[in-house]
Amino acid sequence: MEEQVKRLVDKVWNKFLKTPKDSRLLIAIGGVPGSGKTTLSQLVTAALNARYAAASSPPSSGPPASSASPIAAFVPMDGYHLTRAQLSAMPDPATAHARRGAEFTFDGEGFLRLVRALREPLTPTSGAIFAPSFDHAVKDPKEDDIAVLPEQRIVVFEGNYVVLDKEPWRSAAALMDERWFVDVDFSVARKRLARRHVAAGIAATLEEADRRAVENDLPNGEEVVRLRLDVDEVVSSREDGTWVHV
Fold it and tell me: Is the peptide bond before 168 cis (omega within 30 degrees of 0)?
């Protein structure tokens, strides 16, 4: 594991060990589009689950460590995209569709409700709490597709606006135990976004994909940087995919 990721995992793990048994540890990882925040979030989540499995492992004669239930859940913000039907119902549907991915095209109140639900104390009768995912095939959210189980006491949130100094994102961020920001040079993000848009079928060519990045994604990123809340960690994502603590 890269040293920077290990440092973050160590920090979360030590904080988790001090977290009351009836509480969850909530982490928000924000950044501009194409910053690498999804990759970092998934790396941290997987490493935490591996750490928990190792700590829960019985003697070598027992079942393998992988039998331990995951302690960490990964919840991307993508599921809170407004649907295409909701965008079409806006006063200026053409702009709404063209700017999909901008802050106003997300259900921030729905995200806040999720965070509040996960902040509630855990009890013996606590059940799963569900979040939406984003179905790239139909290009709309899929309701109740991500289950956060009672035993998953670490939740890693990821998204453009999870540390945005604007309501309702500000209220959701205030409920987090850790707030991180993934920094990146906009030229690096631009290249990543163009490749991603072609791979996802959002654009047919790299030229079209680059135009979308310049006209929509990067302006959204400028808002993310301009309205960033104070955070606990800033991690820089390099062009070669490595991480640097800022």
Answer: yes
> pTM of the predicted model, to two decimals?
0.92
Which tokens sit at 77?
């913000």
Residue 65 is predicted with a pLDDT of 46
The count of domains in the chain is: 1
pLDDT of residue 136: 85
Does residue 193 form part of some domain?
yes
User: How wide is the angle at C-alpha 232 spanned by C-alphas 110 and 113, nearest 5°?
Assistant: 10
Q: Which of 40, 26, 72 is nearest to 53 (CA)?
A: 72
Quote the distance between the C-alpha of residue 53 and its chain's center: 23
Structural contact between residues 67 and 54, judged by C-beta atoms closer than 8 angstroms = no
- Would you say residue 62 has pLDDT above 60? no
Segments forming the whole domain that contains residue 93: 3-236
Report the run of H or E that residue 146 belongs to, with start and end.
strand 140-148
CA 120 – CA 123 distance, rounded (Å) = 9
In a domain, 242, yes or no: no
User: Taking Cα atoms as reference points, which of 50, 43, 53 lies closest to residue 2?
Assistant: 43
Residue-wise pLDDT tens digits, 134-181: 998 889 999 999 999 999 999 999 999 999 999 999 999 999 999 999
In a domain, 241, yes or no: no
Query: Which H or E element spans position 156?
Result: strand 154-159
The residues that bridge with 246 in the sheet, in sequence order, are none
Contact (CB, 8 A) for 143 and 132: yes
- Residue 108 sits in a domain whose CATH number is 3.40.50.300
Q: How many Cβ atoms sit within 10 Å of the Cβ of residue 200? A: 12
Q: Cα–Cα distance between 164 and 228 in angstroms, integer?
A: 5
Domain membership of residue 218 (yes or no) is: yes
